[in-house]
Design brief:
Shape: elongated
Radius of gyration: 21 Å
Strand content: 25-35%
Order of helices and strands: HHHEHEEHEHEHEEEEEEEE
Strand order of the largest sheet: 3-2-1-4-5-7-6
Helix content: 25-40%
Structural class: alpha/beta
Largest sheet: 7 strands, mixed
CATH superfamily of the largest domain: Vaccinia Virus protein VP39
CATH class of the largest domain: Alpha Beta
Length: 258
């Protein structure tokens, strides 16, 4: 409490009526990365006490749903679910509320209960964020956005890579409102992918046609992949380098079967 009372964001939250100083983190993340836009349906995982819910509602003006193991005190215009994001029952409730279209944005500022053992706390953070990512993959619409808090450590890069395999763009960002002594960082995934290929995947293919730019073009489960430096009739092994919502790019690794 003494630390909070020396904190400008603590006093700003008090003055402006937000439930948490963390509200300003989401404002700053959104200003930088444009995660939430007007009219979006937003799901906040681990939402208590509700600081991010208030901000999400203010930015989107659309449907905002908060999920937490704790009961969230009512906020006008915001729906809440008391449940565990790792539970299929909770996922079903969220899906039932957002509908078949899915959520536009999933956000998560949750943190595990800290022990003071840094290695353990980092592992617990990664476990929680992995659960949040798993939940997001089940409820996001194609092209949707995701932001989650992570504690830095030796497993951080692997988690960022995992997010990168499911979104067209991935960034890490520390807002000014994060305390200087905190090891937290936010991972931002934009444009959720529902394609059958992921960065790093390898396939044996035959080049049957060239695209407008002269690159080879192949279909993998009816998804277009462009391949550089090939000609029609080549049988090659390719590796996916970049994935967009409607197509991907790959490079040649060798002849098919090598």
């Amino acid at each position: 409490m003494a630390r909070d009372r020396r904190d400008k964001y603590y006093w700003r939250a008090k003055d402006e009526g937000f439930r948490s100083r963390a509200s300003y983190k989401l404002f700053q993340i959104n200003e930088k990365h444009h995660i939430i836009k007007q009219g979006d349906t937003v799901v906040d995982l681990g939402a208590a006490p509700g600081g991010w819910l208030e901000v999400a509602k203010q930015i989107s003006g659309g449907r905002v749903i908060g999920v937490d193991l704790q009961k969230i005190s009512p906020i006008e215009g915001i729906e809440t679910i008391k449940g565990d994001i790792t539970s299929d029952r909770t996922i079903e409730k969220i899906v039932g509320m957002v509908g078949v279209r899915g959520a536009d944005v999933v956000i998560c500022d949750a943190a595990p209960n800290l022990s003071g053992n840094w290695s353990l706390d980092h592992a617990k953070s990664i476990d929680l964020t992995t659960s949040a990512l798993g939940c997001a993959k089940k409820i996001l619409k194609p092209g949707g956005n995701f932001v989650v808090k992570v504690f830095q450590g030796d497993m951080f890069k692997d988690f960022v890579d995992r997010v990168g395999r499911n979104f067209s763009y991935v960034h890490s960002y520390t807002p000014d409102a994060s305390r200087s002594q905190s090891a937290e960082i936010y991972v931002v995934g934009k444009k959720f992918l529902t394609s059958p290929v992921r960065k790093g995947d390898e396939f044996d293919v035959e080049i049957n046609e060239l695209g407008a730019s002269g690159d080879g073009a192949v279909l993998i489960d009816n998804f277009v992949v462009f391949v550089k430096d090939v000609k029609v009739g080549d049988n090659v092994r390719i590796k996916i380098e970049d994935v967009k919502p409607n197509f991907a790019f790959a490079k040649v690794m060798g002849q098919k079967g090598e």
